[in-house]
Design brief:
The protein has four helices and 28 strands. It is mostly beta strands and 336 residues long. It is 10% helix and 46% strand. It folds into three domains: 84 residues, Sandwich (Immunoglobulin-like); 87 residues, Sandwich (Immunoglobulin-like); 84 residues, Sandwich (Immunoglobulin-like), CATH 2.60.40. Strands 20, 22, 23, 26, 27 and 28 form a six-stranded mixed beta sheet that branches. Belongs to the protein kinase superfamily. CAMK Ser/Thr protein kinase family. It is found in: Cytoplasm; Nucleus. This is (spotted green pufferfish) hypothetical protein. InterPro entries: Ig-like_dom, Ig-like_dom_sf, Ig-like_fold, Ig_I-set, Ig_sub, Obscurin/Obscurin-like_Reg.
Length: 336
């Protein structure tokens, strides 16, 4: 008898006592297993237990709340809920409760995946009901609009749907856009906003197709980012190169993608054994091999929107005179 009481009156069952008081019916099955003399009482109890109100077929709309209820003839009988054969547990989105003879299962926000055959079982009795879920008819009320902006600006994309609390996603060229330090995504009623480069600056590489997808519908827009004029951030400086050594001229531009051309006086310099042109990140370099007196001249790095010039001086002995070459120079920076 003590073992029967211990098997029924567990710590978990004691915690449920306030909402679900102990009944004699809970001891019938354990007693019947312990002593055959109680089997007749168990059969009598089963015959007495009946489903007063069973499950019915229910149809609900997606994202709505849905309640399934069963009423038994005896109060506080433990039961099990299943959907398509899988047992259900109480959780924030699925609340299972018992109040006397009434057993309830409440789905707080129905999804398409909640549809199926529901079953409530208690002491050998069961009742069935099917839940059908209607998909929401979502459509775009206000489409995304193309945005043409300049580099270093903040960009906003706004889309409006006909439903609230829509779980939408943003993409740029099929790559998911997620909230971050420079990206803000906001839902306010039926309006969804995506802010690119919030607190930072939109760059040319952000350009492309922007897409907002809400379940079965999508809206598209094109983001075009115009590059700002290239600027020379660090101009060329006067350079003194040693005779028969390698000379280097270097400047810094405002963006890594900037294209430049090098000139000696007004003649364009192309890559060769004599001249090596290097573009490394925002640095533009010109190497002059085997410097001689004829290399002494004015050199220009032209980035199209901006340019910078300087003089190259050659110092060292010449084959003709054996003397030293050294002259003053000036630095010129100009902006077109």
């Amino acid at each position: 008898m003590v073992r029967v009481i211990q098997s029924v009156v567990t710590k978990h069952r004691i915690c449920q006592q306030a909402k679900r008081p102990l009944t004699a019916a809970e001891f019938v099955a354990p007693l019947a297993k312990m002593d055959p003399i109680f089997q007749q009482e168990e059969e009598s109890f089963k015959n007495h237990l009946q489903v007063v109100k069973g499950l019915e077929n229910v149809e609900a709309s997606e994202c709505e709340s849905c309640s399934l209820e069963v009423t038994l003839s005896v109060a506080y009988i433990a039961g099990v809920w299943t959907r398509d054969g899988t047992q259900l547990k109480s959780k924030p989105s699925c609340c299972i409760s018992t109040h006397g003879k009434k057993h309830s299962l409440i789905l707080k926000r129905v999804t398409l995946g909640d549809a199926g055959l529901y079953c409530f079982q208690a002491n050998g009795l069961q009742t069935l009901g099917r839940l059908s879920v209607r998909a929401r008819d979502i459509h775009i009320v206000k489409e995304l609009e193309d945005v043409d902006t300049k580099e270093r600006q903040t960009v906003n994309f706004l889309c409006e749907v006909n439903q609230v609390d829509v779980d939408g996603r943003w993409y740029r060229e099929d790559c998911r856009i997620r909230p971050g330090d420079n990206i803000k995504i906001r839902h306010q009623g039926e309006t969804v906003t995506c802010t690119l480069a919030a607190g930072a600056a939109v760059r040319p590489e952000h350009a492309g197709e922007i897409r907002f997808t809400a379940e079965r519908v999508s809206s598209y827009a094109t983001l075009t980012v115009k590059e700002l004029p290239v600027q020379i951030l660090r101009p060329l400086r006067v350079k003194i190169a040693m005779y028969h050594h390698r000379g280097l001229l270097e400047c810094q531009v405002s963006r890594p993608s900037a294209q430049v051309k090098w000139y000696k006086n007004r003649k364009e310099l192309l890559p060769s054994k004599k001249y090596q042109v290097i573009s490394q990140d925002v640095y533009r370099q010109l190497y002059i091999e085997d410097v001689c007196s004829s290399d002494e001249d004015t050199y220009t790095c032209d980035a199209g929107d901006d340019k910078t010039s300087c003089q190259l001086l050659v110092e060292g002995e010449t084959p003709q005179t054996g003397g030293l070459i050294f002259s003053r120079c000036s630095h010129v920076t100009s902006t077109q």
